[in-house]
Structures are given as structure tokens and as C-alpha cells.
Amino acid sequence: MKSLRRDLSANPQAANVTSKVFVRSTKSGKVQKIVRELYLREDIPCSSKLCSQCPTIAPADANGNIAPFILSERPAGTTAFPRGHYLVPDTNALLNGMDLFEHTGAFYDVIVLQTVLEELRNRSLPLYNRLLALVKSDEKRFYLFFNEFRRETHVRRGPEETINDRNDRAVRMVASWYGSHLQQSAKKGKKEKAIPAIVVVTDDKENLRKCKEENVTALSLSDYVSGLEGSEMLLDMISESKDARDSKETTRGELFYPEYFSMSKLTTGLRAGTLHQGVFNVSPYNYLEASVKTAAFDKPLLILGRDNSNRAIAGDSVVVEVLPQDQWKSPSTKIVDEEAVTRNDNPDTEETEAVVTDRERKALQEEVKKAHGKHAEGRPQPTAKVVGVIKRSWRQYVGHVDTNSTGSQASGRRQQNVFLLPMDKRIPKIRVRTRQASDILGQRILVTIDSWDRDSRYPTGHFIRALGELETKGAETEALLLEYDVQYKPFPKSVLDCLPSEGHDWKVPVSKEDKGWNGRKDLRDLLICSIDPPGCQDIDDALHARVLPNGNYEVGVHIADVSHFVKPNNPMDLEASVRGTTVYLVDKRIDMLPHLLGTDLCSLKPYVERYAFSVLWEMTPDAEIVSSNFTKSVIRSREAFSYEQAQLRIDDKSQQDELTESMRALLKFSKVLRQKRMDAGALNLASPEVRIESEGDEVGDPLTDVKTKAMLDTNSLVEEFMLLANITVGSKIYESFSQTALLRRHATPPPQNFEELQNQLSKKRNMELDVSSSRALADSLDRCVDPNNPFFNTLVRILATRCMTSAEYFCAGAFTESEFRHYGLASPIYTHFTSPIRRYADLMVHRQLASAIGYEGEDGHAVIEGVTTRNKLEDICRNINVRHRNAQHAGRASIEYYVGQALKARGEKMAADGVDAGIEEEGYVMRVFENGVVIFVPRFGIEGVVRLEDFVLPGESGARSVAERRELAPHRTTEFDSEEYTLRVEEKGHPEKERSVTVELFQKVRVNVSSVKEEGRGAGKRRVRILVTEA
Amino acid sequence: MSSQRQASSASQVPHLSPAELSYLYTSLSLPKNPIRPDGRSPTQFRPLSAETTILPGTNGSARIGFADGTQAIVGVKAEVEKTVLAADTLDSRSLAQHGDALNREGEEGSAAVSGQGEWVQMSIEIPGFRDDDALPVFLSEMMRESLVGSVAGGDVDGAKEMAGGLKGRLVINKRWHWRLSCFSPNLSHTPSPLLSLTTHLALLSTKLPKLKSTGEEDPFFDDDWAAAEYLYPRSNTSKSSLSAAPSYPVRPPVTLLVIAVGENVIFDPNREEIAVADAVLAISPGIPNSENVNMLGATAGPGEESGGQEEVEGVWRPRRGGVKRSVIARMVKTVLGKGGVGEEVLEGLEGVEVQ
After folding, report:
1. Taking the model in full, what pTM does it have?
2. Is the ipTM of this complex over 0.85?
3. Do A25 and B51 touch (CB under 8 A)?
4. Most buried pick, A196, A629, A999, B213, via CB within 10 A?
5. Cβ–Cβ of A23/B222 closer than 8 Å?
6. In this complex, do A31 and B219 lie within 8 Å of one another by their Cβ atoms?
């Protein structure tokens, strides 16, 4: 009987066929045995430019070209390897030192093994992606070698061999193969000169030993780095966790945190409903308090204290277990700042610490006391503890070194532990081991978290690089961009290659026979104009209106035809989809698309012809829409107005030209549209935004640049038509793509989100907030007016906005039609169509609309790619939702920073004359805590925490330094009424009414705003200080 | 119908003339020294070749073939399945306990849980028959029952793991178990004993992924197939123990066909021999608990005196009248007795390289 089993020994061809067998457990609980056949080949090139053999055997593509060889023929040498070397890192080396591999000073010519790449992917997806990015970029000469598929380097797992050992063996195998291969095949003449050494980089001691046995050159990461120039800085970039792992068994015995549950226990608990999963959200006011929103409960679960948080960091996806009812507490009414509470911690002396310091315990105990109080409002809420982490969302963090933690002998070059205080207050201090403590003091630095072990009170991380001096423009801007994950690197060449070759000279073709005119309407005769903020360069939209012979109006919205220039799936498109949106900072704009497109070719600049995508409506004079029509077009804008200019022109009765008339018509329509929208229940929400209008004069008071946003009629003119266009397009693409239309929705917020605000309003102002529908909410918001306090209404609107969920992009198939609703706009369907230059979503919608109206593109090939695959669209939605939010946060943070700097500049100017007196402003109490309040200052659009010491009591001088004020805090006591939202601050032993200050929620107070330098501890850290001078 | 009949191998009468049949019967019933058509001794099996793990995607598989090309292939697949609690145990009390059990991880272990027969499935495909036709259903049920019925003897190696027999082995914890599906594709002319042997071998080679979770947690397995464990634990010293210790650990049963012709007991009969047998017994020696095991395959005819027709020399007539008790007893004894043929067969199968 002939055997049916595949017998590898008998078959001479068998050497190139083998198989891989493993067990796969699926999410649904299935357990499968998977058998993969591997066909080994001999034509996978070594990709070294030295090699004379591989170019002849490397597989060629359809055009007969082989992929260019990557590894340099003259790789860099070191003292140990004067003839140059190629690096072969193993997985651990990459895990511990990815930042090193990304460093531009060293680590060139690296052979990345498929084995290592796959192992890395299982260990850490972010690192895997970073490595892939390295492999893709040309600069660093990383070559991905498919060693598992090359016959000579394929390694079969031996019996009883662990997978790690097998992979290590694969690495050694490749190294020795490369060695002998290059020896054999190096081009003649070069042979004698330089065959580069193949250096395995591994942190595995066993592997190092075996390398030695097998005559493979191998070094540990730190040994290798020590031999490089500038090793001191580089050594800091090696991940900390490795050292910790080595020393763990020997040194520390004390474990601060409970162990996480095993993965299987977690999944069992999650399925059984005894455990819950959610995202760990740290309170911005109290670093010891976090909440986790889970599917099982309406309200988020509270997590109090460090031991319950159990090493979770803001943003992590965690599994929590609800604590017994007697441990339930109400949310904290106190402001707790990590810096203040743990300021004396020493990064080196860990052994003596308990996980909850007394001070922390005290802060918590007071909360328990509160929870047991009489009031209904502070009802204890379910609390929970973290029992496992599903996914870490650790990223790179920007911060600065805590001066206190550097110790006295900071000058020495020895390695020491320092604390890094992240910019983001919700992130705990990070212990960083560095040899350059003295150099990085006072710098903005970028670090990453490596691990957080049970025996460490703080997470451990390592230094990546310094961004520059604190408070320098460059460093702070970069810090901001890094913190909000904005891609700010210049566009790579591959993207720029996608631009039209004509560059700035590109023009709409003159001849209508040109293919560029295919499917386009000639709208150059229309009197089109654009209205934008002053100085706007990327003009997305333009408008026109004209009377039709039948007495109706034709109204047109013309949007820059970006999809004409950005073809799906080319490098430019991919880059834009990753960036997702343009980010506006005060003094910088980080474009989604290259400059040439954004500000020139796509931008609907006046007086030149541009491609556009037009939405045309026929409207009755009462703004009833008769019909709508979509077309690609060519337009010529007659004028680019700023809001103000447009307003002036409309108001100027002497202007009677056609263009002005059409603008007046537009304005008239917009008012009708707005009224209709309001009647439908659209919300008029407020955000505390200010604009920075920098004229660039260094002489004037920089604070005058800070302007609250003025709302002109022309603002709302543009807004109304953009909304109308978006809605019209939204329903059109949904009609054509019922599953894949890219839409935007704003979910109806659950009523319990408003509970707190409703309670506050009824207590303090006896006002009702009806949240039963958006209409009811809009109406009741309108009724929230305090005649004595004109800003009160805006304040309530700001607070109401915070109770809502944020709008999001989605793919039509992901929700039922009833859930498409945009709550804030009271529209049943909505999308983004009008800003394709700065938002990727709009670009996608353009493509979908083009496809929906049957536009066939220049060459007659309908471009439906990228509009039909739902999975891909959902990925895009997820990304642009995140990018959108980050861009908003970055923008706000940038303004905040600018305001701080403006205050500082002003302060310094004043200080030259005398004392820095700060600036007097109006403020409003937004939240009341037990030991402070949050004040919102509309003039600067900032909100700040006012602590006890920052209340200026009657009869006390306001002009004290920070240090002096800090001394005040212990001498003050408060009386806090959480039901009435009032806080009375008084000096200890002086309960007289005259000498105390009472503040309450929504109250208008006089405040003194200044920018102060933190003294003593937070080396040169600056914050905006708000002093309450008058209640 | 007639074509179907032909396809059903087990009951098929070979195309031999009455004279040939008569000759065969005579030579087989020669006292003490039967002469078999292929020259084998009465206890000699046909030479067969066997191999395991021929279907890479299965948890275990085997193929056995005779020299004449008759062969059987059996594959075994294992799936994780949630145990549905019987209605009476599903009261609130047990649910509460269940919650406790999560916390008190595996204090009690899963010893209390016994497996269920329906966790083992057997499907046999016979061309020309629908899968719910009587023949395939009967055949597979026959195989399945003996599989499920096998239990460990008290003092045997590996008895601990196999406490509840195969059923017990399939229990992962209180809430999860393995479901085993054995399938045999395209069984055209395979006699059932061959199928049984192949199933036995396939089960011997069956491996289950190694469990990493403990206690009452949802099961979680090692992703390394090499770490997977045999369904029927193998003794490490298999070769030496073969001869030394006759008490092999629990093994899946095999069913052997034994026929009686006259006074002779003949093993592994081929089709022609079955046709002239006085009695055909299917015996499963793997199952110590023998009462439930022995299956009377067929007797040659009703126990009635010959009704008039004289027996003519050289012309075959089906036998009438029963078989003597002593013959049956001898048949059973040769198979099941200590050092009997059954043991021999099992040892032989044990010796097949399963990896």
C-alpha cells in the first residue's frame, strides 16, 4: 500500500515543501488545528548590493524589474567592526530598543527577519507598525528578509523545542547563512576589501551563548550601543523594562499592586457578566479618580485610588470588577493634583513606599466621609477595581523632568532615576533612567512607557529625545503635536510625486475638447464669490445666487474639487487618509494635503478658473427647495471676501452691483433656512472659543490679539449653505450607497448625562432643562437667561455641550436609518462635503457623490474604488474620528498656550515698570469643589482651577508671589456645601464673615489673571494663575 | 434497490457456485486443521498495512488497507463545546455555586462531572446510501456505542485520566467539553471489522490541544500543536511494556469478526468464508465489561430441522440449525481470554507508529 502521508524523506522535491501546524483559538471559542503548507524557494534575494548572485535570481515583476537592493555595499563601520556590518536584531532587541532603531544617527543596514517581524507583531502591534514603517522608508536601509520561505534559512521546530528557541535558532541560521553567502557571492575585487560583518543583536543570554558556540557574531543591545558614538544618549533609549526584569528576582520583595487575572479568567468573567470591560478614563481634576463606562451600566463605574486603578493608565482598555456595596462612594468633590500630593517621592527609594501613601489615603478618606453624608446628590456610586488590562494604549508622552527628583548629584554622569511629569495631567509620573539628567532638565522631552510592574509604584519608561527648551516656541509646538498624535513631518517624496507636474502653473485647460472638461459644466459666467475668515488661504467653498426666468432663484455652493487631484489609493491619498484633517494651531497649520494643492490648485481663489464640485438648488423666493442638482464644474470666483468685508459690502446701500445683490439674496435665504432649522429643534451650542488674530506686530500688547469669536450675519450665511449642501449630499449618497455612504451622526445624549446640570440649574437658578428632545432642550436653553448676568446663558450652553456625546463619522451600514440623526443640527441625515481640502471625510464623500451622479472621470473610467468596501470605510471612519478630535484638542491647547505666553509677555513688560499685577477680568464659576473652584474666563476662553491659596480674602493684598501664596494654603479652611454648590473660604481662626469669601456655582467673580512661573519644584513650569479677587 | 444491495458490502453474497461454496465449507470445517482458501491458519489475520496521521487537518486519522485494495480511512475531529446543563440541575442554587466556582477556582475540580454519550459522533459514508438510511446509521451507531461504552478497569495505567472512559476524557470542566466527530469517507467495500480497526487507530493517534486554563475558566489552549496531548494517553515505555505488562491502559475498542465453521473457529474471515459460516460473531475485546460487548453478528439460519431436502454432496445449502454453545464459548474465549487473540490484536495496533 502506498502511503498517503506526505513523506518528506523519500521525495527529492520535498525539500521545498514543508508545513507548519498550530492551534488557533477563535473569538467565538472554537479551537482549530491549522495546517499551513510552506513552499520554500531559493529566489529570495539577500538584497545586499555587494552580492553578485542574487540580482540574477531575484524574482522580477511584470515589467521585468527586480526590486532594488537595499543593503549598502559600504555599511557603516564601528570600532569593533571596522569593515562595516549588517545588523540582525532579534525580537527582544527590537522590543527593548525600537527607539534606537528609529534613531537617525545609527542603526543603518538592518536585516529584519520575517520570523522576528511576526513575533514582534504578536508581542506589540504598535512596535510592529513602527518597524514596518522603517522597512518601508528608504533612508534607514532596513531589509525585510523572508527567511522562513528561503530554503537555506528555513528552520523546522525541533522536538521539545520552545518556540523562542526555535526563533532564536532561525536568527542564528540567517546570520551564518548571510555570512557564507556574501563570502561566496561578493563581487570580484570587493571580496578582499570588505565583507561586512553580520552582527546579531540580542538581549537573550542563552542566545548569546549559542551564537558564540556557533561562531556567529552577536552582541547585546547595550554592548553594541556602547561601541557607537554618542552612546550616552543612545543608551538612555533602551527600554527600561529589561533591566527591571533582570533584577527582579533578586532585589525587591514588596509588591505594590495586585496581580491581574489570567486572560482566560477575564474572558470567562466578561462572558458571565461578572466582570466589565471599558476604557479607563482619568478625571482631569483628581488623578486618583477614574471612571470606566461599561455596557452593563448607565453610569460609568468609579475607580478610586491607586490600588484600585492597579496600574491602568488613562486610555487603556481595562476589565473591572464591581466592589461590594459598602465600598461604594460618591465622586470626589476635591481637586487632587499628583504633583502636589507626591511631590516628595524619590525615584530611587522604592522599597520603603507603600502603594497608597498616607497623604493619598487621607485625601481618599475624606471622600468616603462625603459619601456617607446626608445629601441625595452625593449618593454613593458603584465603584470598581481594575483586574486586568485588555489593551494598553501607551504612547509616547511629552513632559519635563521633575527637578526635585534629580537629586543632589545631578551633575555627575552616572545613571540615575528621575521622574518625568507628563504634560497630560491624567498620566502618572514616569520613572526614567537616564545618564544625562543634567542636560535634560528644563527641556521638553519625549519618553515612552515600557512597563509597569507590580513592584513599582510608578510606570517605568525610557527617554527618546529632547524637543528643546521648555517654553520655546519650537519645542512647545512639537510637544503639542506629539501629544495629540498629529503627523507633522514634511510630506515624503512619494506623496509629492503625485502632484501635477505643472506645479503652480497648472491651469484649467483652455480647450473644452480637453479630457479635463469631460463631464464638467461650464459655470465660469456665474457671479461666484467666497467668504472666509481673514487671511484664509485654503478656500474650500464659494457661493452664488441668481434669479431664474421663472422667478425662482438658483443657488449654488461650489466646493473645491479635491478628488480630481487626489486619486484613490495613491501615496498622497493614503497619507491624507492617515492625517485625516488639517490641524490649525495659532501660528502653524499642519496640512492634510501638500501645500500646492491646498492653497493653490484646489483652493477656489478669486479671478482664476478652478475645478469645482457644485451643488445647485432651485429655490422659491421663500427658500423652499424645488430641486437640487450636483455636477462637476469649472468656476471663476469673482471675489474672496472676509466675513467682515462681505458684511460691509452687503450693508453698504450704495453697492448695487449684481454680485452684492446676489450676496444679499443669499443672506436673505440663509436667514429663512436658519429659522427653519431652529424650528426643527437645532441646538445653538456654545464653545468657549477665542480666536487669535496675530497682526505680527511685536510692539503692541499681545493680549489684544486674543479675540472672542464675533458672529456676523455673513458667518451664518456661509454656515447655513454649507449645512444645506451637506444635508443634500448626505441624502444623495445614502440613496446610492445604502451600505457604504460616509455620513456623520450626532447621537442623542442619554438623559442621565444632563442630571448633574439639571440639578445645578434648579438649585441655583430654579430653572428647568428639558432634555426630552433636541427641540425641548433648545427651547429650555433659550429660557435660561439671567438678566443680571448676560453671560449666564452662554455658560449654560457651554456646560450643556459638555453633557453631549461628540458627533462622529460612520458608514451607513453600521447603523439603522433612525440612528443617522444629527442631534445638534436636528437633521435626519448629515455628512461632510464642504471642506475637502482640510478634511479627508469630505474627500471620500466627493468620490461617493461623483460615483452617485455617474461622473466618469477624465478618461471615462468611473472611479468607484474606495467607495464600496465597507470594512475599509469603517477603518477610515475610526481613524478620522480620532484625528478630528485630536485636531480640535491640539487647536485648543495651542490657543491656551498662546494666551499663557501672551500673559507672560505682558507680565514681563509690566514687570519692567514695576510689579506684575496681572490683568483684571470677569470670570464665572463653573464647578465647585471642596478645596477650590473652576473658573471660566470668557475673555481668554480659558478655564482654570482656583485653589484655596488663590482666593484673595478681604483685607488682604493680592500681590503676593506664588511661594508666599502657597504658604497660605495650610492656614485656610473651607466650608463646602455640595447641595448648594457653595464654598466659603476663610482663614483658620477667623470665622468672621467679613474676612471670608463665599463663592457659588454660576457666580460672576472678578479675577486676576496672570502667568506665573512655578517656583521650587516644577522647574520653570508655567501656568496661568487665576486669583479670585472679588466675589 | 438491487444495485443498493450490491453496494452493501457486509451482507453481500459472493458470486460462487453452490459447488464452490460446498467445497469451501468442507475444507473449512475439516476437524482441527481447516484449510482456508488463502492458506492462512485459523487465527491468522490477513496482512494489512496501516498508517496514521494521513489527514493533516484532523486531530487524528488512520488508514488501513488489505493487500487486495480494500481499505478504510477514518478521521477524527475535536471541537470545544459548551456543556448544556440538564434541566434539573439548572436551578438557582447551582447557578450560585457556579458563580462561586469562578472565584474558588477549581477547588473541587471537575471530577464530579461525567461525560455524555452524545459527545461522540460517528458518521460513515456509504456510496448509494443516504446518510439517514438504516445501514450507515446502524453501522455508525454500532461503532459509537462500543466507543462510548469503554471504561477503564480499576487498576490500569492511565486510569486516572480516563476515569470516566472516553466520555470522561472529553470533559474539560463543568461547563465545557470536547465533541468528537469520527468520519469515514467513501466506504465502498469495507468490512466493518476493518472500519473498526481503523477507527481504533485513528483514535489512538488523536491529539487534543493542551489546556492552559485551569478550573472552571473558559478553556484556553496552548497554540503549539506539538504540545497537544493524546486523547488516549500513551505509555512512555510502549515498546518494552508490550510484552511485559499485558494490562494496557484504556484503549478504544476494536470489533473483530469471528466465524464458526463446524467445530472450527476462524478469525478474520474474508467474504467467501463468511458466506459459508455457521455463525458469525462480532466481538469487541477492548471492553472489559463483556456482557454489553459481544454482539451476535449473524447465525447461519433458523434452528429448524431440515425440511425434506436431503443434503447433496458437493452442492451448497445454507446451514440450518444452531451452533453449539460450546463453540460459541470457545469463540469468545479465544478472543477475550488472557493472552487471547484480542490482546494480540490490540498490541499489534499499539505498535503502529502514531506519530
Report:
1. 0.70
2. no
3. no
4. A196
5. yes
6. yes
